[in-house]
Amino acid sequence: MKIYEKAPAKINLMLDVLHKRPDGFHEVEMVMTMIDLADRLEMSDQPRDTIMITSQAGYIPLDEKNLAFQAAKLVKDRYGVRKGVHIHLDKKIPVAAGLAGGSSDAAATLRGLNRLWGLNMPLEEMLSFGAELGSDVPFCITGGTALATGRGEVLTEIPDPPQCWVLVAKPPINVSTGEVYGKLRSEHIASHPSSKNMVAALQAGSFTEMCNNLGNVLEEVTLKLHPEVQQLKNAMLRLGADGALMSGSGPTVFGLVSKESKVARIYNGLRGFCKEVYAVRLLT
Ligand SMILES: C[C@@](CO)(OP(=O)(O)O)[C@H](O)COP(=O)(O)OP(=O)(O)OC[C@H]1O[C@@H](n2ccc(N)nc2=O)[C@H](O)[C@@H]1O
Ligand SMILES: Nc1ncnc2c1ncn2[C@@H]1O[C@H](COP(=O)(O)OP(=O)(O)O)[C@@H](O)[C@H]1O
Q1: pLDDT tens string 196-216
Q2: Which of 43, 125, 38 lies closest to 78 in space, CA to CA?
Q3: pTM score, two decimals?
Q4: Is residue 190's pLDDT more than 90?
Q5: Whose CA is closest to atom 4 on ligand 2?
Q6: DSSP E strands: which ranges in the chain?
Q7: Average pLDDT over residues 13-20
């Protein structure tokens, strides 16, 4: 049998860090939503009792470091499954970009193996497996639009944003999420974006208020380390995006655009700055 799952990328419309916790993670408040840029996973039975990962992308680990592998191993161990699986990852989401590509692959693996192996896994259990795999995995399981608190795994569903275009630009820089959180001095954050205002904007269905309330405190770290990310954000706005922000720990910058007539110009302008540019819709 073969199972297919789509693993969409996320963007953070706002991201605030409250403080560092005794367990080393940071307490956050984030508003997250999905975009129509997705990896595709194909899962099929394997004669041998092993987990095999393949991908057309030459630049991701295919062993136990792969988050899809880790998700499959967790399910196999906890449910005592004595079957093998071959997971093929058709990667479309830029890697180490702040778009949760690996986390979304892990979430899609949990969903897919639940079907392939007929496990009837309760959603609560899937979410708890997700939290063991990474802070962003639970959101990638539920999808939609959510206010995420705790270390990112405590989710409250909120209304989807008004539909718009999302210009996604990933500069050729590698950023480590752990390093960015590690360099943040939460007591010195100059200004905190408001989750309350962002949630209110989405509840009101206001595109303008959504753009006015974009904010990400991790920009303070990544933009200082990599000034070209600030330049990309400036270019996004100069070319006509209604709002622009770095996603997660970066380095991807996204721009929100309400008028379709502006999209081609912004896309072409950004291509002058970086190779990896996408024009997609929100996944509402
Ligand atoms: C910043 C965000 C925003 O959505 O996304 P990305 O930029 O990774 O896409 C997330 O908080 C990232 O979530 P995720 O990528 O799942 O992180 P994890 O694997 O759980 O953690 C990686 C490392 O980041 C740090 N970390 C992560 C989450 C958190 N709330 N506090 C932290 O301090 C820890 O040092 C941890 O070892
Ligand atoms: N299935 C996967 N897809 C992409 N990256 C993966 C995957 N599994 C493990 N990784 C590793 O996880 C790291 C973070 O990748 P990714 O999830 O794409 O970024 P981010 O957390 O910034 O959104 C990368 O260094 C990559 O090597």
Answers
A1: 999 999 999 999 999 999 999
A2: 125
A3: 0.98
A4: no
A5: 102
A6: 2-20, 26-46, 51-55, 84-90, 145-149, 154-157, 165-170, 215-216, 243-246, 253-257, 276-281
A7: 97
Ligand nearest to the CA of 222: 1
Taken in order of first residue, the domains within the chain and their CATH numbers are 2-157 (3.30.230.10), 165-281 (3.30.70.890)
Instruction: Evaluate if residue 186 carries a pLDDT over 90.
Output: no
- What three-state secondary structure class fits 55? strand
Question: DSSP string of 199-213?
Answer: HHHHHHT-HHHHHHT
Which atom belonging to ligand 1 lies closest to the Cα atom of 136?
A: 16
Is 104 marked as a binding-site residue? Answer: yes
Q: Take residue 174 and report the two structure tokens written for it.
A: 């590698």
Asked whether the predicted pLDDT for residue 187 surpasses 90, the reply is no
ipTM of the complex: 0.98
Which residue is associated with the tokens 């991807």? 252
CA atoms of 16 and 217, how far apart (whole Å):
6
Task: Note if 45 is an active site residue.
Answer: no
